[in-house]
């Protein structure tokens, strides 16, 4: 053992004549170990104890909501109006009150002050002769039903006002 440097300790036991240095663990190894322990504690506290992190289901929900938002935004930018667009418009108080005013001025004479019907069909029930999806309603409002006395409102009101009054009708349906 004469070639062994002084500071290198030799362990006392031998295995079949083989001797070992008594070296301490390398610092990089110890650091990694402590780091993983610290990480596991932080992870446990974050997800299990404090419930600060989202679980898988919440993460999925958040991701889906984000997709919906992106799709809605892209549609709005492209000027696409579909049933979902009306569902969103029907929750916007400004659009709904604008639609209500248009309804009172143009529609209530035939469809009633409270959409209960009269000369025209009731618009507050689930019974739709021409379909109850927002786009069906929009189509009837724009084109009218010439044979049955429902005037075409597209040329009179224009697209924006038609959509506002449809959003108003959709808001009444939702309840
Ligand atoms: C001159 C009377 C009159 C006015 C004014 C009128 N409507 Fe109508 N409307 C009718 C009649 C009549 C029908 C039934 C058509 C049929 O039987 O196919 C109808 C049908 C409808 C329908 C389809 C109902 C269903 O069950 O499918 C919608 C929606 C509608 N009107 C919306 C409106 C809106 C919105 C306005 C105002 C912008 C309006 N109407 C103004 C007479 C009118």
Percentage of residues in DSSP E strands: under 5%
What's the β-strand tally?
0
Structural class: mainly alpha
| Distance linking N and C termini | 92 Å
Question: Spans of 5+ residues with little confidence (pLDDT < 50)?
Answer: none
Written as H for each helix and E for each strand, in order along the chain, the element string is: HHHHHHH
Kindly report the CATH topology of the largest domain: Cytochrome Bc1 Complex, Chain D, domain 2
Global outline: rod-shaped
Instruction: Specify the biggest β-sheet.
Output: none
Give the mean pLDDT: 89
Helix tally equals 7
CATH class of the largest domain: Mainly Alpha
- Give the assembly state of these chains: single chain
Output the CATH homologous superfamily of the largest domain: Cytochrome c-like domain
Helix content class? 55-70%
Report the radius of gyration as a whole number of Å. Answer: 36 Å
CATH architecture descriptor of the largest domain: Orthogonal Bundle
């Amino acid at each position: 053992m004469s070639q062994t440097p002084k500071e290198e300790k030799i362990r006392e036991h031998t295995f079949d004549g083989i001797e070992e240095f008594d070296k301490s663990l390398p610092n990089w190894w110890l650091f990694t170990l402590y780091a993983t322990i610290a990480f596991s504690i932080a992870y446990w506290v974050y997800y299990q104890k404090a419930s600060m992190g989202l679980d898988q289901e919440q993460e999925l929900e958040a991701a889906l909501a984000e997709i919906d938002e992106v799709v809605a935004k892209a549609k709005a930018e492209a000027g696409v109006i579909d049933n979902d667009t009306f569902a969103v418009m029907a929750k916007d108080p400004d659009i709904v009150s604008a639609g209500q005013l248009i309804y009172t001025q143009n529609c209530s004479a035939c469809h009633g002050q409270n959409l209960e019907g009269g000369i025209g069909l009731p618009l507050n029930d689930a019974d739709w002769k021409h379909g109850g999806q927002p786009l069906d309603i929009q189509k009837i409002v724009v084109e009218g039903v010439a044979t049955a006395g429902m005037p075409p409102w597209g040329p009179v009101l224009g697209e924006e006002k038609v959509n506002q009054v449809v959003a108003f009708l959709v808001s009444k349906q939702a309840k």
